[in-house]
DNA sequence: AACTACGTAGACCACCGTGGTCAACAATAT
DNA sequence: ATATTGTTGACCACGGTGGTCTACGTAGTT
């Protein structure tokens, strides 16, 4: 309600946000513990309820915080004008990991939100989630040039396979750099390695 | 300890096992609730601790139960003599879903085990897990015939891509048939759909 | 120095769900 | 009729819960 929390020093505010994001991502809303949050954040118990009215308010604050970041820093980087599926995916993947590297907890938290009880989320949050899903869908299915595919290949099926393969690649990367290791990831190297795989895909599927 | 539980009627025993597997899979060991387990299983609280000494014993029983099933019903179906990656994967995938359909909770439970705290699992369980991982690895990397790949394609990279694509397919299927819906899955249909994708892969990557 | 206003910590609260027990009783076997 | 086994759920001490409140530190103003 008050803007006390917003006026906090940047470092401290960020510490609290990260601690809370981590706790909610790990345990979900119900089983998340405010005691653990304040311990992780290194603040007194009272302060959390001084900044936020209650656990729910904190949760909603985080939800909005994550969506704002997403809308300001990540989504604008996605370019649906690129007609080539593989190129589009290359750029989107690098953007994604770049965002992930900078805000490791945000993605984890949003991931759990997507699976959360519907009745926990207000309608406007649901709409934001739907928008997010739509972007993910458009990224892979909208406004693409199919003409590059080989004639003897079903381009619809090929696209699905490509999508899965690239998401498989992303998962493998995430498995290696999970959690705190995320900051160690080398985006240039990722981009290169990824490019190698994309070249193989092009050779296999394109004319 | 005693064999009281084993002498139970098959239906009742299975009800308890399923309730417990589900609870542990959903909440992990620490946050799993014995109260919820007995409620789901439809038995009195006392019985659970009459059959098992404590929560841990129940957990270990389930672990062994799952591994036994896996070793008797699933692993023998995997055939590493098939030299063609795609064919091998086709058979393994059908086996996997067939097992999954019959024992939906077992896979979920084993999945959480793999991520569980190491100190929760005894050494022999760790060994069984390692064995399982090795089988998964061998399935994709051992004793395969690379000679079918096109000459202008890096067969190592191609194999990785194929693996990811097929696992992506599996994940999509699982997303559709999660939980109780698993029993609705049509294995023949799955096998056909999957075959279509495999054909596309063959056209793209093989000579 | 005195006063005010905000920031901060953590002891404390009533409450609830926990793993586990146990006395009472039902069912079955001898 | 008796002994054995199967079964239930009220009950227990306990630990962790979200949230409160008092006491204190700090900084600015007069």
Automatic annotation (TrEMBL), chains A, B:
Keyword annotations: DNA-binding, Repressor
Keyword DNA-binding: yes
DNA-binding region: 33-52
Repressor recorded as keyword: yes
Domain of life: Bacteria
One GO MF term: DNA binding
Residue stretches making up the HTH tetR-type domain: 10-70
Alphabetized InterPro entries for the sequence: DNA-bd_HTH_TetR-type_CS (IPR023772), Homeodomain-like_sf (IPR009057), HTH-type_Tx_Regulator (IPR050624), HTH_TetR (IPR001647), Tet_transcr_reg_TetR-rel_C_sf (IPR036271)
Official protein name in the record: TetR family transcriptional regulator
Organism: Alkalibacillus haloalkaliphilus
């Amino acid at each position: 309600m008050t803007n006390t929390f917003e006026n906090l020093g940047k470092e401290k505010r960020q510490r609290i946000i990260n601690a809370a994001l981590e706790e909610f991502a790990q345990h979900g809303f119900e089983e998340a513990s405010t005691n653990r949050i304040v311990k992780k954040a290194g603040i007194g118990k009272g302060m959390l309820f001084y900044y936020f009215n209650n656990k729910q308010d904190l949760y909603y604050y985080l939800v909005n915080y994550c969506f704002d970041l997403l809308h300001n820093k990540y989504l604008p980087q996605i370019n649906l004008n690129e007609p080539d599926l593989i190129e589009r995916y290359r750029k989107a993947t690098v953007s994604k990991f770049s965002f992930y590297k900078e805000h490791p907890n945000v993605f984890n938290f949003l991931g759990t939100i997507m699976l959360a009880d519907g009745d926990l989320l207000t309608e406007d949050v649901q709409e934001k989630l739907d928008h997010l899903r739509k972007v993910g869908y458009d990224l892979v299915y909208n406004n693409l040039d199919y003409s590059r595919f080989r004639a003897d290949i079903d381009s619809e099926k090929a696209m699905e396979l490509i999508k899965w393969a690239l998401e498989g690649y992303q998962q493998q990367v995430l498995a290696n750099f999970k959690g705190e290791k995320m900051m160690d990831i080398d985006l240039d190297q990722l981009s290169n390695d990824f490019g190698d795989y994309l070249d193989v895909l092009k050779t296999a599927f394109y004319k």
